[in-house]
Write a structure and sequence with these properties.
Layout (H helix, E strand, L loop, with lengths): L14 H11 L12 H36 L5 H21 L3 H20 L2
C-alpha cells in the first residue's frame, strides 16, 4: 500500500462555504446600495483608464505647444520648438488612442512624446 488517499475523493464543500465565496467576490456597493458585479468593476476601470489617458495626453499636448510657442518667441535654435511641437503631436495622438480604449499604446506614445520634448530641451 502506498498510503496515498484515493484520487477521486476530495475535500467536501458545503453550500454555505460556496455562498460565502461568492459573497466575497461581490463586496462593493454602488450609489444605490446594490452590489456591483465584477463586470461593472471592469467597465469602470476601463472607463477610468480611457479618461486618464485622454486627459493626460491633452494636458501634455497643451504643455508642449505652450513650450514650443515660448521657444519661438525667444531666440532658440529651430530644432527646439520643432521638437516640442513634435512631442506635442505625439501626445495628441496618444490622447486620441486613449479615448478609443487603446490605453497601453497611448501610454507608450505619451512616454515617447515627453522624451522627444526632453530631447528638444537639450538643444536649447
Amino acid at each position: 500500500m502506498s498510503g496515498r488517499p484515493d484520487s477521486d475523493t476530495g475535500p467536501e464543500t458545503t453550500d454555505s462555504e460556496a455562498a460565502a465565496d461568492q459573497d466575497e467576490s461581490h463586496d462593493l456597493l454602488d450609489e444605490s446600495g446594490d452590489l456591483l458585479d465584477e463586470s461593472d468593476d471592469v467597465l469602470e476601470d476601463a472607463r477610468r483608464a480611457r479618461w486618464t489617458a485622454a486627459g493626460t495626453g491633452a494636458a501634455l499636448t497643451l504643455a508642449g505647444l505652450a513650450a514650443a510657442l515660448l521657444r519661438l518667441i525667444r531666440s532658440a535654435p529651430a530644432l527646439v520648438p520643432a521638437a516640442y511641437a513634435g512631442g506635442a503631436a505625439v501626445c495628441a495622438a496618444a490622447a486620441v488612442l486613449g479615448s478609443r480604449g487603446r490605453t497601453r499604446r497611448a501610454l507608450w506614445l505619451l512616454i515617447a512624446g515627453v522624451m522627444v520634448m526632453a530631447l528638444g530641451d537639450q538643444f536649447d
